[in-house]
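Reopening: structure tokens for the 6-O-phosphono-beta-D-glucopyranose complex, inputs below.
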Amino acid sequence: MFLFGDRPFWWVHESGYYSQAPAQVHQFPSSCETGPGSPSGHCMITGAALWPIMTAVSSQLATRTHSPWVRVIPSLAYCTFLLAVGLSRIFLLAHFPHQVLAGLITGAVLGWLMTPRVPMERELSFYGLTSLALLLGASLIYWTLFTLGLDLSWSISLASKWCERPEWVHVDSRPFASLSRDSGAALGLGIALHSPCYAQVRRAYLGHGQKIACLVLAMGLLGPLDWLGHPPQISLFYIFNFLKYTLWPCLVLALVPWVVHTFSAQETPPVRSS
Ligand SMILES: O=P(O)(O)OC[C@H]1O[C@@H](O)[C@H](O)[C@@H](O)[C@@H]1O
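Re-run output (same inputs, fresh job):
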């Protein structure tokens, strides 16, 4: 039940503490999150996702510099950025401070635990089954609790009720949107890692210029792809969301590097052997 925290933007109205003198709260387009408040998803996901980057940069610096001050820069940047994310979540009334703290700690622990365990060498069936287990497991828990009288969508109703503007209640903040995203990404990771494009690029060496080209091309493709796939019907949205996030790892890990590698290999004149 501790995962069911209220968010401040609806709690001020629902708690009854301010029934005598109604509180005026200022909301923002990103205040109206529809999931439960505890722990903060932004802090947790950002903390977990940046952990491997922070540790990789730290170890690079450790091998290249002897200054202990330089080596702590990645950790300081990590903490400062997360602090900013956490403060912004509180400022927006999306969270109470303890929910942000719980998100920060959970994110760092997840990053620390999962970084050495990224499944890169597993069979495609492993990724497919992981995706299926996520989808079926969460749906089963949802419908079982729903049948027992516990509606896990309670937070969507409260967010919709107390959000200042209906257009600020984003459908992609719903818990099932996260589920379709994560299960799609798990499947996409497997497809990408087992694709012929990835098999070619993993043996190739990409120079700095090619890496920058990959980044630019990936950003250029992911932007429009993110914009697509917002059908008004909720079940269609989940299906589109799943497909979109299945495609993302395929683009980023396999297709884009393959295109850049193939294209730039044609541009580079072959090295003559003496
Ligand atoms: O709990 P917060 O900080 O408002 O973050 C909510 C977000 O948390 C993320 O974990 C989810 O993937 C998003 O879909 C969701 O919008």
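Residues 33, 35, 40-42, 45, 89, 94, 173, 177-178 surround 6-O-phosphono-beta-D-glucopyranose (CB under 6 Å). The first helix runs from residue 8 to 14. Marking as resolved unless the reporter disagrees.
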